[in-house]
Every structure is written in structure tokens, then in C-alpha cells.
From TrEMBL:
Residues 1-145 form the Integrase catalytic domain. One of its GO terms (molecular function) is nucleic acid binding. InterPro entries: Gypsy_RT_Integrase-like, Integrase_cat-core, RNaseH-like_sf, RNaseH_sf. Pfam families: rve (PF00665). Keywords: Nucleotidyltransferase, RNA-directed DNA polymerase, Transferase. It comes from Tanacetum cinerariifolium (Dalmatian daisy). One of its GO terms (biological process) is DNA integration. This is Reverse transcriptase domain-containing protein. Transmembrane segments: none annotated.
Length: 196
């Protein structure tokens, strides 16, 4: 993605997305040439292993001899998306939009700080629930839920607290309602007998 306003000498964000887990790796970079892209991919391959296939657009940083050598070295099949057909790399486009939206919300007015906030945006993106996979990318990659340092409350309990309801009175009222319901059920059961 980019170019963006310069932030600590960086003007581009290189993004890699795992299609299965929706895990996103991104790095702020000063340029997007083939050497930088190859170095980034080697670091991703070293941590997660090489994928079977890699899909990219036909940008010059992906479509060159140096990149082809890296793909050959790691045994990765390189596929190119069709020009003017963004659906081919749809998951990457969705991830780019999501990451960009998180960055825009976290940097506020100081647009020059986007490279400092990139790691926080990645963390937020990878620990957010994704409906298609029915969990977070973090859980799929690491096999466990991420322990976030935030306090979560049940929404119904929160609503009771916000409305200043007395929980003891509400509990007593609920018990009365349950007793009345049991009496109605018993009465209906008794009335269901047929006299012969």
C-alpha cells in the first residue's frame, strides 16, 4: 500500500495475507523495490514456513528475476492476479482496507506517526473476530485464544448497571415470575386430564 506521507522515512506498507487463517503480516518500508520485498518475504517464510502458492499483482517489485529466484529457492508457485480484476486478490484488498481503517482511527490528526502505529493496528486486526473463520486469526495461527488486557462485561449485566437497577430486587421479581409460571404449568397439567 502507498505511497503514504513519510513517517520515520517510510512511505509504503508491504502486506502479506494468509488466505486460510486471514493472518496479516505488514511492514513499513521506505521503498517497494524487489530487494525490499524479497527480504520481507524471507523473514515471513523464516517464521511461518513457505507457502505452496503466492498470489500477487503484476507490480515490478513482484514481476522480476530476483523475486522469481526467491520463489524458486523456497519452492513456491507464483501466481499473478489478472490486471484490472481486483477480485483475484480480494482477501488482500479486504485486509488492506481493514488495516488502513484501523490505522486512520489510531493515528488521528498526526498522519506522520502511521509507521509507529502499524504494529498496534496489526495486533488489533489479528485479534479481531472474523466471521468467515468463526474465530480470530490469532487463534488459528497459535492454537489458543489471545489474552487481552481489557475488562469485558456481559451486555445484559452492563445494561442493568447503567440503568441503576437494584439487582437484588430484580432477582426477587424474577423468582416471583418463575413461581407464577410453575403454578400456571401445574394448572394446565391438571386441566389436561380427561374425565371418563
Amino acid at each position: 500500500m502507498g505511497p503514504f506521507p513519510s513517517s520515520r522515512g517510510n512511505t509504503y506498507i508491504l502486506v502479506a495475507v494468509d488466505y486460510f487463517s486471514k493472518w496479516v503480516e505488514a511492514k513499513a518500508l521506505p521503498t517497494n523495490d524487489a530487494r525490499v520485498v524479497c527480504k520481507f518475504l524471507k523473514s515471513v517464510f523464516a517464521r511461518f514456513g513457505a507457502p505452496r502458492a503466492f498470489i500477487s499483482n503484476r507490480g515490478t517489485h513482484f514481476y522480476n528475476d530476483q523475486f522469481a529466484k526467491v520463489m524458486l529457492k523456497y519452492g513456491v508457485t507464483h501466481h499473478f492476479s489478472t490486471a484490472y480484476h481486483p477480485q483475484t486478490s480480494g482477501k488482500v484488498e479486504v485486509s488492506n482496507r481493514g488495516l488502513k481503517r484501523i490505522l486512520e482511527r489510531t493515528i488521528g490528526e498526526n498522519h506522520a506517526s502511521w509507521s509507529d502505529k502499524l504494529d498496534d493496528a496489526l495486533w488489533a486486526f489479528c485479534t479481531a473476530y472474523k466471521t468467515p473463520i468463526r474465530c480470530t486469526p490469532y487463534k488459528l495461527v497459535y492454537g489458543k485464544a489471545c489474552h487481552l488486557q481489557i475488562k469485558l462485561e456481559h451486555k445484559a449485566y452492563w445494561a442493568l448497571k447503567q440503568a441503576n437497577f437494584d439487582l437484588a430486587v430484580a432477582g426477587d421479581h424474577r423468582k416471583v415470575q418463575l413461581n407464577e409460571l410453575n403454578e400456571l404449568r401445574d394448572h394446565a397439567y391438571e386441566n389436561s386430564f380427561i374425565d371418563l
